[in-house]
Amino acid sequence: MAPVIALPTLQFADSAASSTCSLNSCRAGTRVTVVDIECSGDEACRLRALGFCEGTSVNVIDARDAMLLEVRGTRLALGAALTAGITVRPFQARA
Amino acid sequence: MSTLQRPTSPPAAPPSATDALRVAIIGNPNTGKTTLFNALTGLRQHVGNFAGVTVERVEGAFKGPDGRRVTVLDLPGSYSLSAGSPDERIALEVLLGRSADRWRPDVVLVVVDAVHLERNLFLTSQVIELGLPVVVALNQIDAAQTEGIRFDIPELIHELGVPIVPTVAKRGEGLEPLKRALLTAATLPAPTRAFALPAQAQAALAPLEACLVADGLLPVAAGMEALRLLGIQHREVHLADVNGLGEAVSTASTALREAGFVPARFESEVRYAWIAQVIDRTVTRPLVGAANLSDKIDRFALHRVWGPLIFLVLMALVFQSVFSWATPLMDGIEALIALAGGAVGARLPEGDLRSLIVDGVFAGVGSVLVFLPQIAILFAFIGLLEHSGYMARAAFLMDRVMRRVGLHGKSFIPMLSGYACAVPGIMATRTIEDPKDRLATIMVVPLMSCSARLPVYTLLIGAFVPPIVLVPGLTLQGATMLIMYLLGTVVALGVAAIFKRTLLKGPVRPMILELPPYRWPSLKSLGVSVVQRCQLFLQRAGTVILSLSIVLWAMATYPKATLDPALPEAARQEQQLEYSVLGRIGHGIEPLVRPLGYDWKIGVSIAASFAAREVFVSTMGTIYGVGGDADDGDAALTQRLVSEKDPVTGKPVYTPLIAVSLMVFYVFALMCISTTAVTVREAGGGRIGWQWATLQFVYMLALAYGAAWLVYVIGQALGFGG
């Protein structure tokens, strides 16, 4: 029998809610954890398939109109309309 | 047999050793999937469309080590089976044996990028759960090793439960073991889901899965489909057309929520949780990754100032090379055709047959064939940009510009493909999810100067623009070409903005774009795709243009005028041309094109090129081949145009101003029957499709006429009348 998958999700439910912010307010060089994705279901579905889901650690490589992110070793470019609706919790700020 | 049929349909016969083995290749974009496909099948490929849709369908074949024939279908690149785009939907339908053409794979080959294994395993885990025999190609293993990434492959095989073969597709490494694995995969036990859901979640989903099994899905595939249905927005776009499915999904969602899970996130959470375990057990990577080469390149390529500048320089380089590198090859082809035409002509008796062969067939087809080098070079560059990973950067850089006109960066790739040909460009809009964005992109793609316009530009630039060196490496000729391309591009953006603000009003979909690492492209794969594109072009030159050339020749030759033998040869031929059907049509059109400064010969050529714009050049070839002096019959068409004099005034017929006005006309005019056909289908088919296609044709013709007229009038006012 294959092992049952333990889900890490519910750990975040109320931890450090005060330290969250929206992804588009993060500066280049920040490392963040995705807390919540708020956008149309289609886009959320695509983001999750690309490995950008709740609980994922993301590096902000470049922040301009659109954002350049490192997600699971890949580089993703996300438009401003999306990054505004994504809530994240910063790990640390290098700058 | 592990198929996904409904119970009512007869069971499929097991494949015997003599049947061809059917393999479907699937993988994320940028995994080297197509390179692997090209490496496996070489040039034994057939390009078509999936039945009923215009997603390109490329099928190839190879002979297995045991002599068995293997046919391979290259499925569109997909990040998941969630069917967000038409491409992904096609992939899912084929894998489930539910595509319109009933093609069903015996084995699925999943190509994964070793460097990005984590992300690639999402799709892999979905495919494994379809219950079909699966082989995984762990591709670009060399790049992973360079980055210091190591794999425990036996453990990975154990975790996934399917054969895994490391490959380097662009160097052809690992192909033989891969072929053997494909041939034996069907004899292995069918793969199943490699993890188990939490018990409460499993219980919540059980009724939904039962509902899907009742529709004929295998239990394992029902599990996959159930997870998928929880996350997707458009439940009407699913594969099982079961009664009460919507309710079953709602019930399962509610039950799942009560058990403490978030349904929309559930699939990605369980899969990535499993993937994290697998990666943890099977992959070791260096603790501190130095900034890799791609990041270093991107610091320039995506720089706020340097990025757009590099992009512009690259584009200028491409167009300059298309123009200058192709010249010796084109001269060679021209000489060969003239030689062949002369040799064939010499064996034929003087008369209409000889004229048909030499002036109709050879001159007509030859003047289009001559542009093959340019098309090959342009496609090679576009392939190079795509395979190297730069194309996605271009889309990222262009996103801001595209957003301003109401589109997003993704529309840029179809538009860039439009530089080669509007047909694949329009087909590439399938990667745009929003229907209004797609339609707006489709409407403007044909404004991008395609390779079929090259013959027109080249002919006119070659004849009327002097090769003055502006800066080292760029001549006035190259610059003129660049300006024509920029003109089309800028107007395309403007028109898109108008469409998005009027007929196709709607919100702009945000950009989600992967920037793949820069890679050296595989020359073999690049070669295969260039040859493929050239073949498609030649098929057109060989069919549409050949038949049009013959029709045009006949129209230029009949009816025969009774001519005064005392007149000089050239004058007699001129009179014959004017007397012919073509001449009469030309004179009929003349009042329409006169305001643009064109004479009846240009009018004829424009009229003849309504079905395919490159016919303009072959028509000019036919007209001047027929109307020309027998002694200099094989003088280049450019020479003829420059020396052409008005018989009354003695002034040159073609001035540089008219050449520019003609080029501008062709920048905007939609004269391509294939583009119209593809627009009809892609814009929705049937009456709606025709309405959009008609609108496209009419607005572009109006734009062409207006702009050419403006150029002519303003040019004359400025004293460039000649």
Contiguous helical run count of chain B: 29
> What is the overall pLDDT average of chain A?
81
Radius of gyration of chain B: 29 Å
Give the end-to-end Cα distance of chain A, rounded to a whole number of Å: 48 Å
Radius of gyration of chain A: 14 Å
Q: Report the structural category of chain B.
A: alpha/beta
- Let me know the largest β-sheet of chain A: 6 strands, antiparallel
Biggest sheet: strand arrangement of chain A: 1-6-2-3-4-5
What's the shape of chain B?
A: elongated
**Poorly predicted residue ranges of chain A:** 9-17
**Biggest contact:** A-B, 45 and 58 residues
Summarize the structure.
The complex is a heterodimer of chains A (95) and B (722). Chain A has 95 residues and is mainly β.
Q: How would you sum up this structure, described in words?
A:
The complex is a heterodimer of chains A (95) and B (722). Chain A has two helices and six strands; from the N terminus they run ββαβββαβ. Chain A has helices spanning 41-49, 80-83; strands at residues 21-22, 31-37, 57-63, 67-71, 74-78, 86-92. A six-stranded antiparallel β-sheet of chain A has the order 1-6-2-3-4-5. In chain A, strand 4 and strand 5 form a beta hairpin. Residues 9-17 of chain A have low confidence and may be disordered. The radius of gyration of chain B is 29 Å and the shape is elongated. In chain B, 59% of the residues lie in helices and 8% in strands. By secondary structure, chain B is an alpha/beta fold. In chain B, the strands form three sheets. Chain B has a seven-stranded mixed β-sheet with strand order 2-3-4-1-5-6-8, with helices on both faces. Chain B contains 29 helices and twelve strands. The longest helix of chain B is centred in the middle third of the chain and has 42 residues, at 306-347. In chain B, strand 5 (107-113), helix 3 (117-128) and strand 6 form a beta-alpha-beta unit. Chains A and B meet through helix 1, strand 5 and helix 2 of A and helix 3, helix 10, helix 11, helix 15 and strand 12 of B.
